[in-house]
Each structure stands twice: as structure tokens, then as C-alpha cells.
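Name: Transcriptional regulator
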Amino acid sequence: MLLNSLFFIFAFLPVVLLIYYLLPAAGRNLFLVAASLVFYAWGDPVYLVLLIFSAVFHYIMGLQIQNAVQDKRHRKMDLIFAAAVDVFLLCFFKYSGPAAGMVNSILHTQIAVRELALPIGLSFYTFKNMSYLFDIYYGRLEAEKKFTDFAAYAVFFPVMTAGPIVRYKDIKEQMKKRRVNALQLGYGAGKFILGLAKKVLLADTLASLYGDISARAGDITVLTAWIGMFAFTMEIYFDFSGYSDMAVGISRMLGFKVKENFNYPYTSKSITEFWRRWHISLGSWFRDYIYIPLGGNRVGMGKHIRNILIVWCLTGMWHGASMNFPVWGIYYGVFLIAEKYLLGSRLEKLPAWMSRIYTMLFVMAGWMLFSHNSLGEAGIYLKRLVGMGASGFADETAWYYLKTNLLIFLLCIPACGPGLYRFVDSRFHNLTVGSAVLYGVLFLLGTACLVYSSYHPFLYLRF
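Structure predicted for Transcriptional regulator:
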């Protein structure tokens, strides 16, 4: 089951909210566990056992690490064992097939590996549960003794499939006691509707355009290539931030305050700033559990560069097994190193508009590495952007794409910045009739698109 399905919006979510609000506070976490398991089993019943195993395993290991507080060696070995199990499961499902194919192509062997469907949300709920163990190990959190409370966190359905990567230490108190009232419900519903509008009104429309252009990348003009790159740049932002908004909104309706996952990244004036604003929960996860334990920036320049490249190679690999993902990660690692040691002061002296253009050009080029299935395909598309192999600068098809999508392109630009949302938020908090009409119109348009348009799953469900 997905957050943008009609069944979820009109059946599952209303029923869950109704029962949840009618239950006494003591029974709500247990109900959340049951509802989350139904949510997951609806779309991926085969791997439900994997989700349950992850919840039980991390609960037990958390208690074990906590109980070994006086035995540092035992405590460390418990953490290493738990991390090894998590890494094994991730590698088995995400990388075993591609790895075998790579070995076969290099060594001319015939290793047969059955292709396994990637369990929905595996990367997200594994990282979420790993953070729980790391925080216990580093003394930032005490292990949860009540299994129902931890299980409600481990399988929490709004954030299970595509984040944000919520940490238990941030919502532990909310697991015990949280406010559930009409104001929370209203705010959460508004956030959900905005996320739904981002997804179905903007991202899905752009997905169709980019899919058409990328499918014929071997014979397109320079202008068409740039239109496609802009379309995917906007698609992935509105798709992923739309999901995050929906997840945050549902969480709020259930009484949980989950941190935002995006902070208007396309307004950034450097690549460094961009990655502080994009997929914040993943970036902070790698910072706190990989980068800082490696020494962070408290080491010499050589080791600092090493730490950045390790973190960004792992960030790329987290997204997928094909070579374009680690290359995409290293691509950003190189930019972060360059901005730290070479470009930082120069960027600060540039006018804001020039810094933003610089950032967006290289972010957009990076998305071309991300959006293709191989480095070869990405290379072909990048060549078309600069005219190499392109069928001219522009043709009738390029102008057609531009004219028919100009309105949505113009809508995307303000929708990437804070001004529009601050206006909407201010109107919502005033609880005016106008705000109710605005959200009602957005909801009707969003659901109409779900009824009459082709179905587009969230992009980050692949990871």
C-alpha cells in the first residue's frame, strides 16, 4: 500500500485515524503496530517477516548493548554483530545480483544468482533501526524496555517505505505520551494535502515528460535535453519532498512531531548548502554514524578528504547497486572537498544569483548520473546537453515540449522556494475560509489526477 493510492487515502487512513482516536492512549501503540503491519503486508506480504525480524532483532540487541554497559568489549562486539547483520541483509537484497553480474562479465564465469525483488523500504527502516543501536552504544539513549513502544517506532507506517529516517531518541517521549487533538489533525491534514499536490500535480506530470525524452535520448536536440534535465530535477524534488510532507502530515495527525526532511534545497548557494537542505535525515545519519566516528573534520586535510569520499561513496551505494550511484556520490564528494579547500571564499564573494546558478547547474548534471540505469546512458545524455551527438540545437519537438509544459515549469520555480509555503502556512494557521477552500481545491485536484492519470509510484521506493 502506498500513500498516494486512492485506497489508502479514502479507506485505510480514515479507518486507522477513526479507531486510533477512539482508543484509549494505552492501546494506541499496539494498534499502530497492527495497522503498520497491515499497511506493509498489503503491498509486500512476502517480506513482512523481514520487517518483523528487524523490529524484534533490534529490540533485543538494544537491550543487550544496554546491559553490557560495564563490559566495553562485549558491548562493542554486540554493536558490530548487529551492524554486520544489517549490512548483510542490505547487501544480499540490493547488491548480490549486480555483483554476480559484474563478476561474470569480468571473469567470464557463469555464477547464477536469482534476482530478488527489493523489499519495500528496506534501506529506510534498516537505517532507522540501526540509529537506535548506535545511540544506545554512544550513551545518547537508554534502550526501550517496552516492546510495544519500540515496535510502534520500528514499523511506523508513514515513514516506513521512504523516510524520513526518524531516530528513536527524537520521538521516545512521544511514544509514551503525545497530544492528539483537532489542531494536530488539521495541521497534519494540510501537510498531507500539500505533499499529495506536489506528487500528483507536479512530479507525476514531469515524470511523463522526462520519461518520453530520456527514452529517445539517442536522437534529441540540445534544447530537448535541457528541458528533460530540468523536468527530472523538478520531478525528483517534488516526488520525494511530497512523500516526506505526506509522511510528516500523517505522523502529525497521529500526534507525532517528525522533523522535516527538506529545507528548500534548490535555493542553495553552494553544493555544501544543498546537501544540508536535501534529504536531511539521511545526510545527518551519515554525518553522525559514519563521518564523525571516522574523525570528521577534526583530522588532517588528507584524512578529512578520505572521510568525505568514504561517506559520499557509501551515500551513493545506499541508493543502488549500479556503478552510476557510487560515481554520483563521489561526484558530490569532490565538489564538497573543492568548496571546502578551494572555492569557499570565492563563492561567498559572488552575487547570490550567480551562486544559485552555479549550484543548480551542477545539481542538475548530477541528477543525470542518478536518473539513468548505467554510466553509459548517463554519459550519452550529458553529451547531448553540450551538443555532442545531438540532432541540432532545437527542433519542432523541443518547442512543442517547451510550449506545452511552460505553465508547469513556471509553477515549479516558486514552488521550490519558501515564500509560497509561508503564505499558505500563515493562511492555514489563521483558520480562514480561504485556507479551507485552498486545501479543498488542492485535494480535489490531487485525487482527480489519481483517478484519471497513469499511476506513478514514488521514486525513492526503489531505494
